[in-house]
Design brief:
about 220 residues; alpha/beta; Rossmann fold; Arc Repressor Mutant, subunit A; 5-stranded parallel β-sheet; 4-stranded antiparallel β-sheet; 8 helices; 11 strands; about 40% helix; elongated
């Protein structure tokens, strides 16, 4: 999954990016509201972490503009303000959740996982299709209870397909949601990663829908 971090404190921005990448997310970042608004308005993100007190354009204004323009990605607001009115303003502007500073990175990670799950219609960090299970919290994949070792990019791919299981996901959508702006997006990259994941899973759960993309579904005769 691909996330956007908008935070003007350089140390906190860096900590977020490092923690999220360590949790196998693709991450883009911005240091002010104008840049953040532009990225969120032009790139597809699965969730956004944004400070309210941003230079050039505050977080509430960024959020209002996104929602007015029909941008529906989940947004987690960060605020150092302790007044209930600021929290209400954020929720009324379209925020999906908020965390007050100071906070633990682990709490933010948990809230992001919850936002991504809910946006895709799931209640648990652990999801299964046939014998394949993906645990978003632990960052692990197993087949019939046996762990499968995947690279970060391979995990993002199977996790994204799992979140959207049963639906055809195009190669373009996978590319946009799995890789940050700096990734070298060769046209064959997705096919290569799908091939690797299929080989490692050794079960037929990733269907190629010719001309459209890929779909994760229970194989014929497979268990749920």
């Amino acid at each position: 999954m691909r996330l956007l971090v908008i935070e003007d404190d350089p140390d906190l921005n860096r900590q977020f990016v490092e923690a999220l990448k360590a949790a196998d997310y693709a991450v883009d970042s911005a240091a002010d509201g104008e840049e953040g608004h532009f990225l969120g308005d032009t790139e597809p993100y699965d969730a956004v972490v944004m400070d309210i007190g941003l230079p050039r354009m505050d977080g509430i204004s960024v959020l209002k503009r996104w929602r007015a323009d029909g941008r529906t990605m989940p947004v987690l607001l960060l605020t150092a303000r302790d007044r209930w009115s600021d929290k209400v303003a954020g929720i009324d502007a379209g925020a999906d959740d908020y965390v007050a500073k100071p906070f633990h990175i682990e709490e933010v990670l948990a809230r992001i996982r919850a936002l991504v799950r809910r946006a895709a219609g799931h209640a648990s960090d652990e999801m299964s299709v046939g014998p394949v299970t993906v645990d978003l919290r632990a960052g692990k994949v197993s087949v019939s209870g046996q762990p499968v070792r995947l690279t970060a990019h391979e995990f993002r791919l199977i996790a994204y397909l799992m979140l959207h299981r049963g639906r055809i996901v195009s190669r373009t959508e996978l590319t946009e949601h799995l890789y940050d702006q700096d990734f070298d997006r060769d046209s064959n990259t997705i096919e290569v990663f799908v091939g690797r994941v299929r080989k490692k899973l050794a079960v037929d759960v990733i269907e190629t829908v010719r001309g459209l993309g890929y779909r994760l579904q229970t194989p014929p005769g497979g268990e749920r």
